[in-house]
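Reopening: C-alpha cells for the guanosine-5'-triphosphate complex, inputs below.
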Amino acid sequence: MEVNHVELVMSAVDPAQYPTTGYPEIAFVGRSNVGKSSLTNVLINRRSYARTSSQPGKTQTLNFYNVEDKLYFVDVPGYGYAKVSKSEREKWGQMIETYLTQRDQLRGVVSLVDARHAPTADDIQMYQWLAYYDLPTLIVATKSDKIARGKWNQAVSQIKKSMGLQNTNNIIMFSAPKKIGKDAVWNWIEDQAFG
Ligand code: GTP
Ligand code: MG
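Re-run output (same inputs, fresh job):
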C-alpha cells in the first residue's frame, strides 16, 4: 500500500479508549527493543513516526495508528523486559490479553523476533498463545541486516523449528534500515485486512 496519511489516533490502555471507526486492525507484538516501532515506521514510510529508542520498554500503551483511513496499526508494548516490576508486567499482560482476545476488528498479528538469535522462550510462548486463539500470525525476523545473507536460511529454519511451524510461508526476513521485506509484510497485511 502506498501510504501518505498516517495519524496516531489513540494511546490506549483500556478498551473504552480503542478507536470506534471500525477499520481492520493489525497488531505488532514482540520483545521489548526487537524493532516493532521501526518496522511500523518503514511500512508507513516515516523515519520516526512511531517512537523508536535504544532504551527498551519505552512503549507502554497500545498505540493506534490510522493508516490512510483504511486500517489501524496497533503498536503493542514489548514483552520480556526484565526491569519492569511484577505488577507492571501483570498490568501489561492483562492489557494485551484483553486486546488480542476481545477485539473484533483485529485481523492479524505481526510477531517480531530477532533474526540473529533463536526465538526466546517468550517468543515461543507468544506464538503458541496466538495460535491457540486462532489469530492469523506473521513472523517477522528483524535486524536481518546484522547477519550475513548466507545465514538467512538457517535463521528461518531455526524459527520454523522453534515455533513448530509446518512450513516457512509465514516467516519473513526483515531489515528496517535496508527496508528488506517491506513488500512481503505489506502483502500479508493487505490479505488479512482486506482479503
Ligand atoms: P519497545 O517499544 O521498547 O518495545 O521497542 P521496539 O520493539 O519498538 O523497538 P524499536 O523499533 O524502538 O527498535 C529498537 C532498536 O533497534 C533501535 O535502536 C532501532 O534502531 C534498532 N532496530 C530496529 N530494527 C532494526 C533493524 O532492522 N536493523 C537494525 N540494524 N537495527 C534495528
Ligand atoms: Mg516501540
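The first strand starts at residue 6 and ends at 12. The mean pLDDT is 91. Marking as resolved unless the reporter disagrees.
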